[in-house]
Every structure is written in C-alpha cells, then in structure tokens.
Specification:
mainly alpha; 20 helices; 4 strands; about 0% strand
Amino acid sequence: MSSTTESAAGHGHDDHDHHDPSFWQKYIFSTDHKVIGIQYGITSLVFMAFGFFLMMVMRWSIAYPDQPLPLVGNWPFFRNWIGEDGLVTGELYNMFGAMHGTIMVFLAVVPLAFGAFGNYVTPLQIGAPDMAFPRLNMVSYWSYLFGGILMLTSFFLTSGAAKVGWTNYSPLATTTDLHFRDKFWTGQTQWLVAMVFLISSSLLGAVNFITTIINLRAPGMTWFRMPFFCWAQLVTAFLLLLAFPPLEVAAVMQLMDRLAGTSFFVPTGLVVGGSLFDSAGGGSPLLYQHLFWFLGHPEVYVLILPAIGIVSEVVVNNTRKPLWGYRTMVGAVMVLGFLSFIVWAHHMYLTGMGTAISTFFQTTTVLISVPSVILITSLLISMWGGSIRFTMPMLWATAFIPMFGIGGLTGLPLAFNLIDLHLHDTYYVIGHFHYVVAPGTIFGLFAGIYYWFPKQTGRQMNKLLGHLHFWPSLICMNLIFAPMFIQGMSGMHRRAFDGGAAYEQIASQVYLGADHPLARMFNAFFKNGAHLPVEVIDLNLVTSFGAFVLALAQIPFVVNFFWSMFKGGKSTERNPWQATTLEWACPTPPPHGNFDKDPVAYRDPYEYSVPGAESDYTPQFEPDPAEVTEPEKKDAAAS
C-alpha cells in the first residue's frame, strides 16, 4: 500500500497551487486523472459520431437499396467502394457493419463509460488526490488512442477496413484479403493489431482502478460508504481484467494464422476459392468463438454497469431520498459480475452443443436476469414517493430505466436454444442488444454528462437545448429499435444489405392491413397516401427515418456542450445539485490534487431527507455539528 500511496504523492492537495506544468504536460501528455478523463470523453464522443455515421449509411442502404447514396456518395472516402450507379454495395455494407460494431463497443461506449467517467469521477468520490498510477493512466489513454487511429486509417488501405463482422470469426477472418501482396497492411490484419492496443489499454486501466479504489480511499471512506458508482466501476474493472485477456490472446493467435502460417483456428481440409487452403490445419474455429464470447458477454456488463452507477447517483439526488437497498444493489452487481462469466455460450447454440451443456447455459442466462431485476427494482423504489426534480440529468436517468428494462426482457427468450434457433442473427437480436446499449447505456452516459458538467467546467448546460436533445432522442430510439422485434420474429436476417428485399417470402409478409389506422398514417408519410398494406420490409423505412432524425437530434447537444463550456450560466457553488457525495466537496472546477483540504467521509453516501436534519441533504464530507471544533468552525466560515 505504501508504494501505491507514494506513486500519487506528488498530487496531494498541499501542492496544487505550486503545480505549473507546460501546455504539453497539462493538456496532451497529462498524468492528471481529470484531464485524462476529459481526453477519454472527447475522443470517445468523436469515435461515437463516426460510428453513428457508418450506421446511417447502412440504414440508407437497408431502406432505399435501389437509390444512390445522397450527399456523401461522391466523397473520396467512398470512391473505391460505392457502386458505379451510386448504390451501396454489399462489400461496403459489410465493411461498415463490422466497423460500426467495433467502433461503438471498443472505441466509443466503453472508453466513455469506464475511461472518461471512471477517471474523472471515481478519485473524487473516494477522496483520492489522483489515480494510484498516474503515468500508467496516461499510457492507457495513448494506447487507446493509437489503437483507434489504427482502426480508422484501415479504411484508407487498398483492401479497405475489416469486413467480416465485429466478431471477426475464423476461418473467414483468417482467410480474407490474403490475395494482397502485403498481408500486414490489410484492414483485417490492422483490426487485430488495433485490438491488441485497445485491450492493453483496458487492462492497464482496470489494474489502476482496482488499486486506486482499494488503496486510496479517504479517511472514513469504508467499503459501504463508497458511492454506488464506485462499486459499479470496481466490478467493471474486474470484468475487464479477467475477460479481456482471452480476446487479446485470440487476436494474437488469429494474427499468427494470417501472417505466420499457424493453424490455431484453421481446420483441416479448409477450401478457399475452390482449392485447398495452404495450411497445416488441425485448428478449431469454435475455439475462437469461445474466446471471443468469454469476453463478449462480460463486455455487455462493462457497458451497462457504469451507466447504472451514474443513474443511481442522479436518481437519489433528484428524488431527495436515500438509495433503496444500497447493500443489496452492491451484492447484485457482484453476483452479476460473477454470472457474466458463465453465460457466454448462449451466443453459440447454433454450433451444435449437446443438450446438457445448452441446459447449463440456459439456466445461467435466466439466473443473470435476477440481479438485473434487483438493480432496476431498487431504482424504482428509490423514486417511489419521492419529491422528484425533473432536471436534465433526471430526464435521461428516468428514461434509462424502462429502456434498459425492455432490453433485458427481450433478452430472456434468447436464453432458450429452441427459440434462439429461429431468432439467431435476425433483427430481433439487434433490437434486444441495442435497447440495452443505445437507449440504455448511452442515456445513462448522457445523464452523467449533464450531471457532472457543472463540476467539471463551473458552468451549467442550457435547459432548452437539453430538452431539444432529450425528447427527439427518446422518440427516435424507439422508432429505430422497436420495429426490429417485429421484423426479427418474422425471420428477417440482420446482414442483408438490401434490407431483405431478396428474400421476398419473408419481406412481403403483411404486418398491417391497408385499412388499419397505423397503416394509413404510414402510407401518408412514406407512400404518398397510397392505399397499401404495410409489409415487414416497409418497417425499414420507419427505422431509417428514426436514425436520420436521431442524428439531427444530436446537434443541440453538440452546440450545448461547447457553447455552455464557455458561455453557459456560471455555477459559483461547489455543490449546485445539493448532493451528498465527496466529489462536491472539492472546488469547482477541481484543481490539481482535487481537494483544498483533506477530505474525510463522516457518514453514508446518500443521507437525503434525514428526519430532524436542518436540510433535505447531509453531505458525507460535513461532520456532525456536535463534533466540529472551534478552529474548524472558523475555517468553515472563512471558506
């Protein structure tokens, strides 16, 4: 513990006034956890915008497969991949689909949830002057950024970017683009190299977070005085530490299969291009799937747990009530973390596993819903009977709860292999996963941005622009993903670049008769008032329309974010939300070293509406009046 404490000793509160780094040390190669958190946040939001752009191109191809790509179709970026008639080709669709999933999961949501919020908020909430290993923290960010740049530059290679899906299954991923003379400089190979850097970044961050939370808590900050957000980040760090190494090993093994002629995932007798593949063979493609999904399902909780932690902070602050079942929720996230490691094979029912193994994974998949229900129920009970303040963070937090609930409930049928045989790789799976990650996780992250923005910048975000951001986003998220459940249950496959038009038997199923009120509304909006039944394929128009409007709905947020940073209403108070946790004890914005006096946690994190208290909140950093000495009273009056 002493060596850990020494590594952060240079960041104590006593020396923050004397810390005068150069511009490069302060903003570029910074070791300050707050600057690194901001770097993660800005970078991940840029990657998220690019991933969203890829999705919009895909949605155009799905909804309008016979129409040229508008506005961006003539960009040099598309020159080698767009059809001569301006149509999105299957190869472009596959490339964008693979990179959309990769970018959104590994470059956008995880770095924003864990890297940005975790870095900025966690040390403040536990009363630490910095992360345990500040230089390691810097290396973690730069490894992430380098991996992300590698991913993006692969679009400009002759081969294009990776194009065999974000899961990168062998043997297809092993044998793709091998006809190029330099196999290293192909998109498929660069995907693997970039993943090694991205995973290494997450592992460094995970070790740092675990060490920081265990060793650098302030006096009085016992385990059950930690805010729930810190518990969520701690479990997330363990998930990353234990689940990511198998995927990193798989990436290196697949890299060797591509470049060094090994056969880790290449089976005997593989035929490629009509001839026997030149390889020793004997490898197992299923081994890659096991290694990938051993990370893949814990990764879902890496995405969702930080968002639940943020929502918990926002809900209790705006209901003015303690977090109901706090200790039960802590136990739930720990059980959730454990169970997430024994459910991975429900992604692999179609590989032909036996009944005994499939029964085991069906059981564990159903069981993992129990701690999720505990978390959601606790949040709902925390809101019940509260005097709710519908601030901008609270709007996003309350929207998160039903959206995450829909995502979880629609996942339960997929736990059973009999149902999964029909729904696997259909739009149903897309709808289920995205309800968890898009209106689920991302709504929670928006709640965090609006909530901690005043602490970070000393200014409030504009409420009108916030409402212009929230309400269209909520509506459009449901327009995009709700119809996918209908399409998936009708049998529409997720990977059809023409939206399923080639599969007429499935696509032409009538969903609504021509006289149905919703069909009339649909025809008035999309079919120039024609009197036609609504077929399953027609729902592509609804989902794509929702995606395009959702993109427009993010403009108010971008304007609000940067305008408020410089021109927003000043927040002169340290604690504008009247919150109880320790991060609100430090100056606004927090200086180097974070606190201007030694932080102490005197009580539990959520002392709201305590009977007999002078106000409806009692911060954990304020001692009981009877325990305050005369010098402390003078210091408090002076500050």
